[in-house]
Amino acid sequence: MTDILLDVVVVGAGLSGLQAALTLQQAGRSVVILEARDRVGGKTNSILRSDGKGVQELGAAWLNDTNQNAVWEYVQRLGLKTVEQNTKGLVASEDADGNCHFFPFGGMPDFGPAHVNDIVRLRDRVETASLDPGTFTHSQREALDQITFEQFCRDAGAGTKALQTARLWCRGILGQDPTDVSALSFLEIARGGHGIVNIRSDSRNGAQHLRLQDGTQSIAVGISKLLCQGTIQLNTEVKSISRASSQVYEVTAACGRIYSARKVITSIPGPAYKNITFNPPLPPAKQVYITSARYGCFIKYICLFKTPFWRRQGACGLSQSFRGPLNHCRDTSVDELDNYALTCFLCATPGRKWAAMNAIDRQEAILRQLGSLFGVGYEAVKSEFIDSVTSPWMQDPWAGWGCPFAATPCGATGGVGADAMKEKWQGIHFVGTELANGWRGYMEGALRSGHQGALEVLKDLHIETVKL
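^ thats the sequence. predicted structure below, dont judge the formating
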């Protein structure tokens, strides 16, 4: 048991937990971060290629320098080198029957005028709804929570190709089919990213505009070095959080050590709360969120290549598929390091089917699909292929067995939503990217949430001190 009473214990050394601890320390408060893993960064996880030619991202990968101020400040402060996402060239598209074609970046697939107009109408309908504050008033929230995102699209008059496009969006953002997510949940996510157009954009201001040559985990490592020595306790899994008295909490680690603090900040994903016992139990509204918020299937399969062969076809590396197993892919190369790669996303139903294959069949399925998408054939892609790396999140209990972030199905949170989860309860405060108002699910959202949560703790500590 610790022999001192800390001001705050932070659970989790992802970006939100690290930011919360830094804000608290800068205000002169004593803090310790308890992290179950052997590293900092949470769902930022940058790994070195086996051949040493730079890093690739198993987790969060993209940011921008215009409307993501918190993350961009760290990029500048830490002197991190950015890589602009490649948008020069054509986008590869595959329909549900396996027919492939290219279309200009920033344009629309060649599905014919009627289908394209239908897709545009649905896109604009989702865009308008997500950016209208009236959509999220109490009565509207409850109504939208009662229908799936697919039903929302159908009610908007979406035809076959438009529904397939909406499915592509939902799978690509959440790893879930639009039948599994409430309309409210999807629109809230789109709102936080400045609309569905921006959240899918690789251009300036968009969610996928920039990458970091040294990897996004370098942000977490950089923040950790700004903290006082000894603040972060790695390999320290939290098993329980108990209220010992009106002003003291005890946080017990798996090793049996107990940390005492006046306040606790939890910075873990919603589904990961199942790993921790709370005494007294969390209130019903939070229990509803924890038990209903869920991940879909979202797997990164990063293919490393000798050369960027897709560019010789005039392609930028961005692709989309209605058929699968690949939902979409992006060029995640760093040319100056000869680090050439396509990051493929296996999502929702097609992703689960792909994951059930053996390793050899999984690899062949992706290489064959890339050959079709970029018009070069399987043998050409295979001759360029070096190796692959697969993301680990669906086997990671501390990530909550999934990625990128949890969303809720119909009827779960219309009356409360993520707002109920992020509200403090007694001396416990809740932060994390899935609880952010802006850029929910992104690194920017995590940093904003962590900072805001720390400010709330500081306010409460000050009030309690004044009362004493």
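The chain has 15 helices and 19 strands.
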